[in-house]
Amino acid sequence: MNQRGRLSAAVIGAGLIGVDLATKISRSDRLGLGLVVGRDESTPGLRRLAREGLPVAANGIRSLIENDTPFDVVFDATNALAHPEHAKLLSPFSALLVDLTPSQVGRMVIPTVNGLDALSHRNVNMVSCGGQAAIPVLHALARHHSIEYAEVVTTAASPSIGRSTRLNLDEYIETTQDAVREFSGIQDVKVMVNLSPARPPVTFRVAISLLGKELSPESVRAAVDSTAREMRAFVGGYTVTACTVKDGKALIAVEVDASGDRIPRYAGNLDIINSAALDVAERYAAVQLSSAYAETS
142: number of CA atoms within 13 Å, CB side? Predict the structure, then answer.
């Protein structure tokens, strides 16, 4: 805990996701941004944060391990290949590790579905941006309908996709498919990713196609609208843009506008996974801070 009564937080990675996440943390009432680490001091994101007076370091994971005071929460915004090593090196510390890569090392968490799991696991995995957008809808529909097949097509603007995400496309698809099966119970699942080169860049969009029994326009719409309201509690730009049902087939599409702090509005893929990561970390912080105050009062 830092001197201002918030849990101390660090971010590994100074790419598109890491820089936006650092901004979101700096606004939190429960988390205090202690450090953002990269591997090269010439990284544009790291230099930008340093110019704004935010704490940065350029020695990668070593910068965290060798810090004088351990951090309470560490966000890993690097890539799925690096995260297992990061988790191993940070395991001696008590920090909650929030993984924004599709590594599947920790417990997968979707805030509106199993957000409380972040309170009992030291390493939580945020699945993928497409998973964060689609799984709440699929989970809600599968609770009331028998779904035989689900197809999830994620479309993101090419400028919003950083190098780490491009390296992890296979892991992205595999992790998203596994998470859909686990949280919805639907076993026949197909996930596809479209990196759009269109100009102007397209808004982040996830299209969900379903085959199932007893799907009706009224029941599907009710579940989708209820889920959207829950999502907008922490992702303000989450919007349902299509919801149709006919002959046992349903098509639902959602789009996410980013809040626009450091990223363009079309980059909702970055906004939704960062907002989900911040949500679970703040839930954890609320419990830790409450316990700390109870012990000192």
Answer: 22
Distance CA 207, CA 217 (A): 17
Mean residue pLDDT of the chain comes to 94
Task: Tell me the pLDDT tens digit for each residue of 40-70.
Answer: 888 899 999 999 999 999 999 999 999 988 9
Question: What per-residue confidence (pLDDT) applies to 105?
Answer: 95
* Cα dist from 228 to 59, 177, 223, 283, 288, whole Å: 40, 21, 9, 20, 29
Whether the CB-CB separation of 278 and 124 falls below 8 Å is answered with no
The answer to whether residue 35 scores a pLDDT higher than 70 is yes
Phi-psi region of 185 (alpha: psi -120 to 50; beta: other; left: phi over 0): left
CA–CA separation, 185 and 148 (whole Å): 10
Count of CB atoms situated within 10 Å of the CB of 120: 9
pLDDT of residue 2: 64
Helix segments in 74-147, DSSP class H:
83-90, 111-114, 129-142
- Within 8 A by CB and 6+ apart from 202, the residues are 155, 156, 157, 196, 266
Q: Which residues are catalytic?
A: 129
> Mean per-residue pLDDT for 276-292?
94
Taking the C-alpha atoms of residue 51 and residue 30, their distance in angstroms, rounded to an integer, is 24
